[in-house]
Amino acid sequence: MNATVLASQTTTHHARSPVVPQKDVVREIKNSAPIFIIGSHRSGTSFLYRLIQKHLNIGFGRDNGNFIHFLNLLPHYGDLSNYDNMFQLVSDILAIPEFKKRFSGLEIDPDTFIENLDAQTYPEVVRQFYAEWAYLKGADRWGGKTPDYSLHVDSLHQLFPDAKFIHIIRDGRDVALSLFNLDWGPKDALLAAQHWQERVSAALNFGQELSNENYLELRYEALVQQPEIAFQRLIHFIDYDGDRDMIIEDFLQMTCPKVKRDNYDKWRSRMSAKDIQDFELMAGELLQRLGYPLQYPHLLEKHVTKSQLLQHHIKNIFRKILRGQGFIGFFRKTRQWLRDLRIKISH
Asked: What is the pTM for the complete model shown?
């Protein structure tokens, strides 16, 4: 199941004034309050970021968690006010194999990049990366979209206290159906429920500590059924300072007709009774907390044992092997481990 429900996903590029130097424009973007979209994979995070990027001129980067990963490696780089240490950090980030793919077209010279930093700190490094990406995309502000950010929202908030977080929530059983179709996704409903529950719970708990000015919850089902109402909430939340009436009219004409308004509750007809039971056994309490109706409410009295969890993991591994899946993920994790080892040894 594809959570993307827009038929066309083009980004609007805006002409920039040739009078204002690029460096100054990037600095203005960098100093804007970032927007982070969080939530479980396959909850509509891609649909949401494309919608915002298209209409509200925010340039989203998808670093696949690499900036959080490097945050944990910072002790091995030492004092970033030392130019050599900062140069090594920036060079290592640029050397990530995924970087050119995820930030296609972004050309960065480490020396120039460091020269343009306003402070020799890691948050400044991340802001500068995203600001340059947003500039390339013709955007006025920057943001990040990586579902696993949900597990690291506390770190993101510490790095960027001014950040705004949009948490999109979708019925986990529809999420599970979509995860089943991904090469890296679990092939077991109970493990899919665990995946969904971990990310949604982390984001919900985080949101309880923030004000309404910094945290917004959107339901995927409401977004596809009444996109115009959700869009107006987004405009208000991100403090859009353009012509709101015009942007709403553009949204109503360009995007609303393309939204698949029945793209929810697919699990009712496509999910087996056994899979629904396994999902609700693991995550029934969270489904109920969020107001999603349960098919098997009696399972709320039961809990998943360690033995059951192990059995499901073993079945999941065998299913992936039989489908020839999981090997790319293993290769990437091994490559990342070797890269981390090199950084730890060389510093």
From this structure: 0.87
